[in-house]
Design a protein that fits this description.
The complex is a heterodimer of chains A (about 130) and B (about 200). Chain A has 5 helices and no strands. Chain A is mainly alpha-helical. The longest helix of chain A is centred in the C-terminal third of the chain and has 29 residues. Chain A is elongated and about 65 Å long. Chain A starts with a helix and ends in a 10-residue tail after the last helix. At the A-B interface, helix 1, helix 2, helix 3 and helix 4 of A face helix 2, helix 4 and helix 7 of B.
């Protein structure tokens, strides 16, 4: 039992005060960057969305390494393999869902508001739908 | 390369109880990511379907959400310090930092319950529109996870106090810390996709 203690103790990749403090500080900075970008409306809509999404992804990686020490596990890095597999499944499910629902939505009759908005922007009814 | 050569090149020492438990728990966390991803996808599809009712912009308080974010982030930080204290065998310090983690986590949950209660009392409950339904499900599922974490944390606090730093308590605290850090990562995306994008 005590032998197992010795072995498992060396397998605890638990980081250092440095990693947690840096993780904390970087996360705060990234959070406030996104917060101020939005509250001051610093960029046009699409750029703002991209900006805060990128900041969020960066913060995720910061916490994955500095809090969770994901890359500290020695080879074979089973945890990273499983993580990458999860990301692949996730991307398929999320992008597939968004694509399918967007496509379905475009095949449904528009609402009054959507018709009004369309007519205001295009100055009249839609042209004949060539998709039929 | 033969199988023997591969095994020799990448020796896998992870056959002890600790490693197996921690890896198994990590796999569970990965499945929980899929759960949240699906709830995010649902919110993305339905957040504009307000059924003539309130829109995100009308009900979200960004400053309130920022405070929640900082509380949860701080609790994720203190949870990390717990593990450092545990590995240095400083039992009392570990318990103290675990208690700090609990307090910050509890503050987060109290704020979130207050937010939900306020919305419900104003008539904006989860059955009023697809938007509200997807909002409460996504954010509520996260809040439920945090609440379960608080319960788990209290049990671990008692176990640490009475049993001390043993193989079993270290293993459980490690799994808990994975859970707690993961919840903060999910919240990053809730703050970004729900609240930040909601008020833009």
């Amino acid at each position: 039992m005590s032998n197992e203690n010795q072995d498992t103790a060396s397998l605890h990749y638990h980081g250092s005060y440095k990693s947690y403090v840096w993780g904390f500080v970087l996360s705060i900075v990234l959070t406030f960057l996104a917060y101020f970008a939005v509250s001051k409306n610093a960029l046009s809509y699409n750029y703002l969305v991209a900006f805060i999404m990128v900041l969020g992804v960066i913060q995720m990686f910061v916490q994955l390494q500095l809090f969770l020490h994901i890359a500290d596990e020695p080879k074979p890095r089973h945890n990273i393999v499983i993580f990458l597999f999860m990301m692949m499944v996730l991307l398929i499910i999320v992008s597939g869902t968004l694509w399918i629902m967007y496509d379905l939505n475009s095949r449904v009759m528009p609402t009054e508001q959507e018709m009004e908005a369309y007519m205001l922007r295009h100055g009249g009814m839609p042209e004949h739908d060539s998709r039929k | 390369m033969s199988e023997n050569q591969i095994v020799a090149k990448y020796p896998d020492p992870h056959h002890d109880t600790y490693s197996k438990a921690v890896f198994g728990f990590w796999v569970y966390i990965m499945t929980d990511c899929i759960l949240f991803a699906v709830l995010f996808a649902t919110y993305a599809v339905l957040h504009k379907n307000t059924f003539g009712g309130v829109t995100p912009k009308e009900i979200y308080d960004l400053n309130y959400a920022l405070v929640e974010t900082l509380l949860l982030l701080t609790s994720s930080f203190t949870a990390g310090i717990v593990m450092l204290k545990v590995h240095k065998k400083e039992k009392n310090a570990a318990i103290a930092w675990l208690f700090m983690t609990f307090l910050f986590g509890l503050s987060f949950v109290i704020m979130e319950i207050h937010e939900f209660r306020h919305l419900a009392l104003e008539g904006h409950s989860w059955s009023k529109s697809a938007f509200l339904s997807s909002f409460f499900t996504l954010v509520g599922t996260h809040g439920f996870h945090v609440s379960m974490g608080l319960l788990w944390m209290s049990v671990l606090g008692f176990q640490l106090f009475f049993k001390g730093i043993k193989d079993s308590t270290v293993r459980r605290l490690t799994c808990f810390s994975y859970f707690w850090h993961f919840l903060d990562i999910v919240w990053i995306f809730i703050f970004t996709i729900v609240y930040l994008m909601g008020v833009m």
